[in-house]
Design goal:
This protein has helices spanning 13-17, 37-44, 69-75, 103-112, 134-143, 155-160, 191-200, 214-218, 255-264, 285-295, 307-314, and strands at residues 26-27, 34-35, 51-57, 82-83, 120-124, 149-152, 188-189, 206-210, 237-238, 274-278, 301-304. With 327 residues, the chain is of the alpha/beta class. α3 links the parallel β3 and β4 (82-83). The termini are far apart. Residues 1-28 have low confidence and may be disordered. GO terms for molecular function: thiosulfate-cyanide sulfurtransferase activity. This is Rhodanese-like domain-containing protein. Residues 61-167, 202-320 form the Rhodanese domain.
């Protein structure tokens, strides 16, 4: 099975002749994980020869949104961008969406996308919704030890500033031999650990942050996936990811604004406090991860991979592990 729709189209005389080479602009390293469109545009024109820049679109939409990531990718993308399919580059055996793949699955997908281990990868989101799913893809690269990975803040601004875009179907990329690396599980939280943490209750040195909308956290609004109860894990706090994003530009807010927001939510910025981040399926939890990093908040950052979709299916509502805010 292919991981990206553009890789398995039948070869015709045209497609075989146009076996597409990798996008090979050279660059120096960026100074931070989160970069601006202006920084990326400048680096794409930089003749310095240290590593290639590979733009990666991670455009993805919720199940109740009629738009599809790959279809939108073919309408507008950064020239040479690959498409990282969150619905395909995952654990194929898990009943829960977007669970991390194993090393073999990730390596095969990256090889098919023509990405090499020493490439500089710049992940970006939809031009319509701004920062949303890109952080999850960038985080996945990090879990598998890809050192040079960055998040574009954001593609919406890239388009509005008039930087280059292209459209249409993409021919097959020249494949690479991406090495198999097992995931760094120290920055991932599984279900069993979350149950233990929830049963322990609130304690010093730990904060659990839920990035879903407040109505779903409180148990007032339904989940987008039918049949799932809403509510939250005992002891968790609500920081909807939308509060971290500028309402106009859809970029992550400035470091100063994020610092103030997190302080107001009671987030301990010291290195002694571990932060476990969750959401619906582990996607927007990583928006919080990226915002905490941009704000300079210290402490171990970890993502509950299965997030609420796994939690709400595996715990019994009568157990007290699904809490609804009193009305």
């Amino acid at each position: 099975m292919s991981f990206v729709k553009l890789l398995r189209a039948p070869f015709t005389a045209t497609t075989s002749r146009l076996l597409r080479p990798s996008f090979t602009t050279m660059t120096r390293s960026f100074s931070s994980f989160t970069i601006t469109p202006t920084e990326l545009a400048a680096e794409l024109q930089n003749p310095a020869r240290s590593s290639r820049i590979i733009p990666v679109s991670a455009e993805w939409y919720l199940p109740n949104d009629p738009r599809k990531g790959y279809e939108e990718y073919t309408k507008a993308r950064i020239p040479g961008a690959r498409f990282f399919d969150l619905d395909a580059i995952k654990d194929p055996h898990s009943p829960y969406p977007h669970m991390l793949p194993d090393g073999e699955t990730f390596a095969k997908a990256m090889g098919e996308l023509g990405i090499a281990r020493d490439d500089t990868v710049v992940v970006y989101d939809s031009p319509h919704v701004g920062i949303f799913s890109g952080p999850r893809a960038a985080w996945t690269f990090r879990v598998f030890g890809h050192v040079k990975v960055h998040l574009l803040n954001n593609f919406k601004v890239w388009v509005e500033k008039g930087f280059p875009v292209e459209s249409g179907e993409v021919e097959r990329w020249e494949e690479t031999n991406y090495p198999v690396v097992q995931p760094d599980r120290s920055i991932v939280v599984d279900f069993e650990e979350m149950v233990k943490r929830a049963q322990e209750g609130k304690k010093d040195g730990l904060v659990i942050v839920d990035a879903r909308p407040k109505g779903r956290f409180d148990g007032k609004d339904p989940e987008p996936r039918p049949g799932l109860p809403s509510g939250h894990i005992p002891g968790s706090i609500s920081i909807p990811f939308s509060e971290l994003v500028d309402p106009t530009t859809k970029t992550l807010k400035s470091a100063e604004k994020l610092q103030k927001l997190f302080a107001g939510k009671g987030i301990d910025s010291s290195p002694n406090t571990e932060k476990i981040l969750m959401c619906g399926t582990g996607v927007t939890a990583v928006v919080v991860n990226s915002a905490l990093e941009l704000a300079g908040v210290k402490g171990k950052l970890r993502v509950y991979d299965g997030s609420w979709t796994e939690w709400a299916q595996r715990v019994d509502e009568k157990s007290g592990l699904i809490v609804k805010t009193p009305q």
